[in-house]
Amino acid sequence: MPSRRQILSLLAAAPVLAPIRAYSAAPAQLVPTPSCADDDDLTPSQTEGPFFTPNSPEKQDFASEAPGGERITIAGYVLTQDCRRVAKALVELWHADETGKYDNDGYKLRGHQFSDAEGRWWFNTVVPGLYPGRTRHFHVKVQRPGARILTTQLYFPGEPGNAVDTIFNDALLLDVTSGGDGKFGRYDFVVR
Distance (Å, rounded) from C-alpha 91 to C-alpha 75? Predict the structure, then answer.
């Protein structure tokens, strides 16, 4: 299995119209989810939930804040509806720790970054734990410079809770693979 560094290198080398789907020796190709070629197919919005905290710090590495958690790197592009990469888009992430608890007093497992010149974003973090009533998920806000904020959530494929979570949306599934140093989840945001 490739390392996290190799996966991020593959992400950096992947063309936007054919991003990497599976991270193996011969990566398969896929169109962004949702397709940026379809004017009506934007990334769906979802509730921010009760645990959002404004003014998060700028950071990409959350993993050290939950040393007992299973590591995951989540990454992708911010794209426009006409498949153009968006530089300097705000991407904010927050989620529960490995036991299903949110830090409501500070900024553990909370932060933001800006997409790079190629529209890429990524966070090194841990797989969130489960808590009653919800399936496993990440909360995300994405904002192109000068545009409205997209608030949404990202989900894990194959989770038993997906079938019973009332707001789960399979259009928001991460493409998750496993490697020697943890999991890797891919999602491309398509924004107005």
Answer: 11
CATH of the domain at 173: 2.60.130.10
Alpha-carbon gap, residue 174 to 159, rounded angstroms: 12
pTM: 0.83
Q: Where are the beta strands (DSSP E) in 2-119?
A: 71-80, 90-94, 110-114
Q: Determine the 3-state secondary structure of 158 from DSSP.
A: coil
Residue written as token pair 């197919």: 41
Q: Domain range spanning residue 84?
A: 4-191
Number of domains the chain contains: 1
In tens, the pLDDT along 77-125 reads 999 999 999 999 999 999 999 999 999 999 999 999 999 999 999 999 9
Q: Give 64-79 pLDDT, tens digit per residue.
A: 999 999 999 999 999 9
